[in-house]
What does this fold into?
Amino acid sequence: MSAVDPTFDLDGQPVPLQPGDTILSAAARAGLDIPHLCWSDEVSGSASCRLCTVLADGRPVAACVTPAVAGQKVECRTASLATQRLRLLQMLFVEGNHFCPGCEKSGNCVLQVQAERAGMTALHFEALNPERPVDASHPDVLFEPNRCILCQLCVRASDEIDGKRVFAIGGHGIATRLLIDSPSGRLGDSALSVHDRAAHICPVGALLPKRVGFAVPIGRRRFDNEDTRG
Amino acid sequence: MNAPVASTPPRKLRVATVSLAGCFGCHMSLLDIDERLFDLVERVEFDRSPLTDIKTVGEHDRCDIGLVEGGLCNAENVEVLRAFRDRCTVLVAVGACAITGGLPALRNHLDVGTVLQSVYGRVPDDPELPLPLNRVLPIHEVVHIDHALPGCPPPADAFWQLLQDLMAGRAPASAPGLIRYD
Amino acid sequence: MDAADSDGPARLAADAVMARWRRDPHALVQILRDTQAVTHWLSRPLLAHIAGALGLTLAQVEGVAGFYRFFHTRPVGRTRLLFSDNITDRMLGSETLLAQLCARLGVAPGEVDAQGRFSVDRCSCTGLCDQGPALLVNHHQVVTRLDAARVDALADLLLAGTPVGQWPAEWFAVVDGVQRADVLLGGLADDAPALPVVLAQSPQALLDEVAASGLRGRGGAGFPAARKWLACRDAAGDLRVVVCNADEGEPGTFKDRVLLASHADAVFDGMTVAARAVGAQQGFVYLRGEYRFLLPQLEQVLARRRAQGLLGPDACGISGFDFDIALHLGAGAYVCGEESALIESLEGKRGTPRIRPPFPVQAGYLGRPTVVNNVETFCAVAHIARRGGAWWAGIGTAQSTGTKIHSVSGDCARPGLYEYPLGTPIAQMLDDCGARDAQAVQVGGPSGTCVPAPEFNRAIAFEDVPSAGAFMVFDRTRDLFEVARHFARFFAHESCGLCTPCRVGTELVVRRLDKLAHARGAGQGSAFDIALLHDLDTALHSGTHCGLGASACNPLRDTLRHFGAAYAQRATAPQFQPDVDLDAELSSARRATGRDDAGAHLHTDTPA
It folds into this structure.
């Protein structure tokens, strides 16, 4: 180690970095928030949501998978990136069916809180109105594909933590969707257990453990607290 | 820059409100601004609104602000929304249903005829009744919307903030914490 | 209804295919291709069978089968016809011919006829723009120069059940169409030194010559070839790989098809030089699925080269230089032209671009340091290795050395291949190909640049207008809005679906352009629609996972800038106009109530 720990600059703040750090992981350790949806320190990155796009020395990169480089100038809180985050969130909202008042994930939903933080008041784009059948076949876990944002967290948690490979990505383009590995393609016939990490890692209300909805009253949910709302 | 000094009190802003395919919950939340209502009626005049029972929006004078609760469920909703767009300078989508279609849109994957049949036993066909749309639509897909106030309902403070901004001639900017979707 | 449904025969076919590929899960794309060639489509039970045999999950195999446009997971006809749907095919009347064939066969586009005999659909550009309209038969043969008479005869044969092998041979004729040859299309000189003589130089000397040549990659990005090779050579690892990117998917590009058809030895020479320079043992040609018809002749060339000792153990007589080349077929996915997506596909996976770093030169195919270069790049290497880097550097401009092959199509008298030194002005190329009254040229394909007439004095070079090789000419009768809309559909169709802006954004662009194109009533679109298109353009240019998303709005951006009137005339309404047909939205209620009075209808246009 040199006398002075290497750092990079995030919006004017020096961020210490360690070998193997991405911009996002270093910022997270320093307690600095770079908005993100599809990243978790539990599994490898997919770089799919692009919400964590920052300018690294002027170049747009996904902070979740881009190695942090000492001396680099990283910008996150700029007006144009704020607009970009807003547009990405609006795209995710119109792509799926995200009606918060009717969703039991409300108050605990990362998509919701990111959009609220980003100042999203309207959809901006036309709703694409997907009509994918809900899969309630599993005794303990519900799959509502119209809320899936294709972040791949469940895919990776099942592969890397649970060792079960229950999920995969199928299709392409706007028809991309989450696949379930079972003879019927339904969750009830898969190897998923409610005790799996994959059953709980969903940032939105696409994969929900059954019979615990609305257990936490409004006001005490994960993002009801002003400190965690951001 | 020196603004001209007003010799007379500023003109009251004309405000219209309506609930289309909504539950009036947003209107109730507007009333929840409580004692600030006194302040409000000093500075605005209500045009068409459930508060006034005026039936036609902007019939005599254009409105400065239109607040639209609820999505578009039937032909009449569309006509009313168009009248609001036509007669209001600033149109605001208020609440989750106006912005996304909301709870009424849960019927969107069902056939309207089947729904009517199963709810009423026979399909109501009185020409006085507006026909339901195949799908409940958010209002921004039919007219241009200037601002939106999310929430189910939007918090009273969010209404107050919006109205204060518009009354002051500012672009509305919701304070952190006032944007929430449930 | 088909072999795939009745388990037995389909499974036997898959078993035979898998045995041929030694049950290697990395060969999954090849296994699915070869199996489908027998079973016509890939049923879920069949995918489960393949998954079990390869040690993969059904979801993984389903994910791969659902990714590539040429794999069918629903029943299709025993004969499958795909009309090439590049804008140049459309300009030659492909849509009319498609409709004609469908009418004759009694089948709708995208559907199968009742007897399961044929299905007709569209596919992305097949790389036959100078001899189109073209169609692809069973993802194998191509029929070129379609016209009404040929389509009629085709329908006769299809209805009579005549096997493809008995169709007139001239229908399958694919010509090189070289209009202007320079060093690459001119071919190696008869007295050019043989490859073993060339490879007598040290690997470092080979690399030095390529560095001295200033050769930059011909696939579009223009990365210096020698720098890529050096990084690969110096990367940690025992095994190295050289990949020839023959996934020529950029619409309007067909130069690599000709290089592979007529100069395959030069391409393989170049690959072998690269392998020697970086120390690679393994070579692949990733051949786009649309060029399946080239496979037998390429296999023949490789077999001959093995017999000549140019490939295999101690290749070219160099002790310890073991290098061979395998052919890998794509299955209809434009994004696989991106080098890391191509490597994923080579490994039998969905062709989704990888997260970088690590870059392919550090960890590519199966984690091995891998060089991926374009067909034309390798072809250039074959010449540079013989004539020296200085010779190549003396052609073209200082920053853009050497020649470049252009695939010219569209509104011109003489479409085909034109090879020029880099730095050649567009105007000269237009003159040479007999383009009269051109209003724009799409250089480098949809992901490239739309150059309007006032800028025809610009030159094709990395420092001016870079090009991956497409040169599509549009005369003044063409509507550049429709051209941009066509390209937007292409990108939405080809998006891999990984990242939000590309997956959702490309779809939203298509919907908004469709709204302007099909606007109901007199009001048409409005300035609100144009503003939204600008928003989408900004979003897609502000951080997508790969170049596909980043360039998906290039045609929109260029045409908005240079041909704004084409948009403005579709956006004349003073008010926002809905895209929803509001009167049609009352159709169910009208049907249920039996009402048709004035109150049972809505105008879709917003009154001004």
Q: What stands out?
A: Chain A touches chain C through 47 residues (CB under 8 Å). Residues 99-229 of chain A form a domain with the Alpha-Beta Plaits fold (CATH 3.30.70.20). The two ends of chain A are 35 Å apart (CA to CA). The beta strands of chain A are 7-10, 13-16, 53-56, 59-62, 73-75, 141-143, 167-170, 177-180, 207-209.
